[in-house]
Amino acid sequence: MEGKKENILISKEEIEKKVAELGSRISKEYEGKNLYVLSLLRGSFIFAADLVRHITVPTKIGFMTTSSYGHSEVSTGSVKIVNDIPDNIEGFDVLIVDDIVDTGITMDFVVNHVKSLGASSVNCCVLLDKPERRKVDITPNYCCFQIPDVFVVGYGLNYGDYYRNVPYIFNWEEK
Ligand code: IMP
Ligand code: MG
């Protein structure tokens, strides 16, 4: 990103605090349930890995890959399953975990897919929510931070498949 400088929006410490809080809230609300955490790859791998370590109730964990933005910042509007859920989730209380709800198209698609497979309940949990960009009517049940309409990277979120490993959330601004 030539001629631009990094602008940290959410620090590593802020993320750690929120993720821990969310993990204990989920642990309380899923007490006595049949939790299945479904992490959407690749964007949620870091968030999901941190979150599940704050979940104290028994849980299965599975992964699913949908088609994504690729190297563009704009959604194509169509979602395809690249790798489907590896388990029978019938009767499970599925918590879908993703990095961000932007237009909501991905989350809406996965919610419907999970329902069609006979889950007992379906909730969504995201690190970030960009409500201004919504195209379908969906509100995450659990969310760490709401952000304005800016393209962000770090903590699993990518640009051209880079920056996922950065431990905080940032964008670029003019120098
Ligand atoms: P949606 O289907 O438009 O809600 O987009 C969901 C996916 O788009 C997320 O899982 C991300 O992979 C990607 N995405 C949306 N906004 C951003 C962003 O600001 N930075 C990086 N990826 C994003
Ligand atoms: Mg994604």
Architecture overview:
This protein has 175 residues and is an alpha/beta fold. It has one domain: Rossmann fold. 22% of the residues lie in helices and 31% in strands. It is built from three helices and eight strands; from the N terminus they run βαβαβββαβββ. It has a six-stranded mixed beta sheet, sandwiched between helices. Helix 2 links the parallel strand 2 and strand 3. The longest helix is centred in the N-terminal third of the chain and has 18 residues. It starts with a strand and ends with a strand. The model has no long low-confidence stretch (mean pLDDT 94). Inosinic acid binds next to strand 5 and helix 3. Inosinic acid (IMP) binds next to strand 5 and helix 3.
List the helices and strands and how they pair.
Layout: E1 4-10, H1 12-29, E2 35-41, H2 45-52, E3 59-66, E4 81-83, E5 93-101, H3 105-116, E6 121-129, E7 142-146, E8 169-174
Parallel strand pairs: 2-3, 2-5, 5-6, 6-7
Antiparallel strand pairs: 1-8, 3-4
Helix pairs in contact: 1-2
Inosinic acid (IMP) binds next to strand 5 and helix 3.
What is the total domain count? 1
Order of helices and strands: EHEHEEEHEEE
Radius of gyration: 16 Å
> Helical amount among residues, as a percent range?
10-25%
Beta-strand proportion: 25-35%
CATH architect. name: 3-Layer(aba) Sandwich
Put the structure in a nutshell.
The protein is of the alpha/beta class. The protein has helices at residues 12-29, 45-52, 105-116, and strands at residues 4-10, 35-41, 59-66, 81-83, 93-101, 121-129, 142-146, 169-174. The strands form two sheets. The chain has a six-stranded mixed β-sheet with strand order 4-3-2-5-6-7, with helices on both faces. A two-stranded antiparallel sheet has the order 1-8.
